[in-house]
Predict the structure.
Amino acid sequence: MGSFSASDLAHIESQLAATDELLDRNYPGDDGSRQPIHTVYIPADRFTETFVADWGAQALATAEAHGGLEKLGQLLGQEPDLAAAVASRVAAKLASEPIEDLRLDFEDGYGDRGDEQEDADAVAAANAVAAAVAAGTAPPFIGIRFKCFEAPTRARGLRTLDLFVSTLASAGELPAGLILTLPKVTTVAQVQAMDYAVSRLEEVLGLPAGRLRFEVQVETPQLIIGADGTSPVAQLPHVVPGRISALHYGTYDYSASLGISAEYQSMEHPVADFAKEVMQLAVAGTGIRLSDGSTNIIPVGDAVEDAWKLHGRLVRRSLENGYYQGWDLHAAQLPSRFSASYAFYREGLPAAALRLRNYVERTEGGVMDEPATARALAGFVLRGVQCGAVGTDEVKALAGVELSQLTALAHPRLAQPTSH
């Protein structure tokens, strides 16, 4: 006989009902879908059906002009065998899927060209995206960044958002990987306004509720620490649950807002690390993804190799810090993005796969991993598979698991029935 009566247990259940609802609704965990390893930003009027392939060709040509992808890997510190394995995979990636996520920019990269021109470009961008999707030349993820919701640009941003989405919807079913980006957010109210805006678009266009999710760019200190001393960014997942898909760090706007001189603005500045750590805490368990920002040091002219070394190091640093996505601004950054990323996953694969095999087979080894660590190990390997760094055959050979089992290990909640 236990000491707790039925009424005692019922009382505890009642006390924790709100907690259960909060965890179930606001902390669903990652949905298991693919996250792109980068986002490419280009002025919105530059996109064409062949844009992605053109950038891949430019990236390969730049690499070949500077000794090839294997030399690039060695430049980034890869041992010869690793550099060779990475190079072949990067070459295939640049030929087949050089851009994973593309953002047609109507904000900083586009500027103010007058309402008539921006209206025309918003419609043209939507038609170009629809044509590329139909032709099979669009990247897996694609969308726009429109102007922010501060008073001077709010109406313009909303009109561009409306024109783009409405035109795209009129062309047929929206692309599965459609992404909308809200920049320069300073308050929770701006995100709530965006939630209202996309909800209205869904109603007017006959889209399913929740179809239009969006990213929030964290580019202002007011979003990290608000006027009342709290952290607005930590409130965002909970004021519009399920609506935000990602938080993206804005390197240069954020640094400039804190008075960091241009020479020292960087993804690895201490103020950047602090902001990104707050972002990580804010979205942990919510299913909202994170993206690091960009470096504006571009591999062109006489500075190609130095720029590649910097970019490769920053990409690796982001990955090690748990930021699995970042921005690229130029075709010549694609080789270093993929080379550094693929090396990260391939270097870590043998040890991660062995620990995962030991966990699955209940084999005693030098490390006794708990379920949470097993999820992290499986998540690491799964990301490597999704971006093309490693193959499912390698995972099967090393870890002894198929892709379906790997996915279930990385996202166990997806395989479990919900309790509510």
Summary: The domain at 38-345 is CATH 3.20.20.60 (TIM Barrel). The first strand starts at residue 38 and ends at 43. The chain has one domain: 38-345.
